[in-house]
TrEMBL record:
Assigned protein family: Belongs to the IMPACT family.
Domain Impact N-terminal, residue spans: 17-123
Protein name stated in the entry: YigZ family protein
Top-level taxonomy: Bacteria, Bacillati, Actinomycetota, Actinomycetes, Propionibacteriales
Source organism, top-level taxon: Bacteria
Stretch list, region Disordered: 53-78
Amino acid sequence: MHYLTIARDGHAEIEEKRSRFLCTLVGVENEEDARAVVERLRKQHWDARHTCSAFRIGPPPQPVERSNDDGEPAGTAGAPMLEVLRGAGVSDTVAVVTRWFGGTLLGAGGLVRAYSDAVRAALDEVGTLRRELVREYAIEVPYDAAGRLETDLRSSGVTVLDTAYGAAVTLRIGAPPAEEKRLQTLVAELTAGGSVLVPGVDHWVDR
């Protein structure tokens, strides 16, 4: 399982009929963090007319999604911003667009375009990376077989995370959970049935 998130925090600004739209993107892990970012930016840009927001948190197929128009006509700010994040497949991210009014009304269509374009510009600025679910596994082998096994695993495309030395050598590897059966077969073949693959914890890794 995998999804995209932003490669770094950042921002971009666009202008539409003298109104300024500053989009700030921040990586977050939960709703509380996302709402804290919105409030921080609201206070930081106290002179702005609107502080609209949208965020997606968590992996597919059902990430948590929220949006807020902050006084703009309903559906013209937060929802379009959320749609841009959704369309880009980006999660664990809050988008905040700060608007300074330029004196000219943009109309519903103009607002939708401006808020959407601000988020797109910020996404282009920060880039994305792949967040992948990885399961750790342990393999215990005798000292005289450890070096060869590690080499064979790496040549088979397996990520070796680290090696621990005790009464025997324990190799710790990482792979998507869906590859567990293949790894079990591979380890059995490489060790002539002398070692087994012991599953550990799952965690998300950015690549």
